[in-house]
C-alpha cells in the first residue's frame, strides 16, 4: 500500500506515522526520516517504510536511492513530500492531508484505489 502524507512543514506527518505504527503494535522509537530518507519498521508479515523526500532536488534521486524495490505487496509505504519524486512514485492508494485547525490539526483521508477504500472502510 502506498500512502502520500500531505501537509506543510510541522503539520504532523511524522506524528501521524507514529500513531499508525503504534496502531500496528510498534512500541519503539519513531523518528523523522529527514536525514536517513527512509526508516523501516518490520512486523511479522509486512514492513512499513516511512519516507521523507523533502531534501530531494531532482526526482531522479528517488531512483538513484534504490527505493523502488521497497514498494512491494508486503509493504506499506508512507511518503512525506511525494511531489519531490515527480511521476516516478507509484500512484497512491491513499492520501492523508493534514491542515492546521486552531491549536490542532484536521486530517482528511482520500482513497485512490480499491485497497485505499478497503483501508478507509476499516476506520
Individual helix count: 3
* Unreliable parts: none
The overall strand count is: 6
| C-alpha end-to-end distance | 16 Å
Order of helices and strands: EHEEHEEEH
Q: Please list the strands of the largest sheet in the order they lie side by side.
A: 2-3-4-1-5-6
CATH architectural group: 3-Layer(aba) Sandwich
Q: Which class in CATH terms?
A: Alpha Beta
The helical percent reads 10-25%
**Fourth-level CATH superfamily:** P-loop containing nucleotide triphosphate hydrolases
Name the beta content range. Answer: 25-35%
CATH topology: Rossmann fold
Q: What count of domains describes the coordinates? A: 1
Please tell me what the overall shape is: globular
Q: Determine the structural class based on helices, strands and strand pairing.
A: alpha/beta
Largest sheet: 6 strands, mixed
What is the C-alpha radius of gyration, as a whole number of Å? 14 Å
Features:
single chain; 123 residues; alpha/beta; Rossmann fold; 6-stranded mixed sheet; 31% strand; globular
In short:
The chain is of the alpha/beta class and 123 residues long. It has helices spanning 13-23, 60-64, 114-122, and strands at residues 2-6, 38-42, 47-52, 75-80, 94-101, 104-111.
Amino acid at each position: 500500500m502506498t500512502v502520500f502524507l500531505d501537509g506543510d512543514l510541522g503539520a504532523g506527518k511524522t506524528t501521524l506515522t507514529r500513531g499508525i505504527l503504534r496502531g500496528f503494535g510498534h512500541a519503539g522509537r519513531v523518528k523523522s526520516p529527514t536525514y536517513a530518507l527512509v526508516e523501516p519498521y518490520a512486523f511479522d508479515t509486512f514492513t512499513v517504510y516511512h519516507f521523507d523526500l523533502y531534501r530531494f532536488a531532482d526526482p531522479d534521486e528517488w531512483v538513484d536511492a534504490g527505493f523502488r524495490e521497497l514498494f512491494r505487496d508486503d509493504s506499506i509505504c508512507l511518503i512525506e513530500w511525494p511531489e519531490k519524486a515527480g511521476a516516478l512514485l507509484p500512484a497512491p492508494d491513499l492520501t492523508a492531508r493534514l491542515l492546521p485547525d486552531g491549536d490542532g490539526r484536521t486530517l482528511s483521508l482520500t482513497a485512490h484505489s480499491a485497497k485505499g477504500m478497503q483501508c478507509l472502510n476499516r476506520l
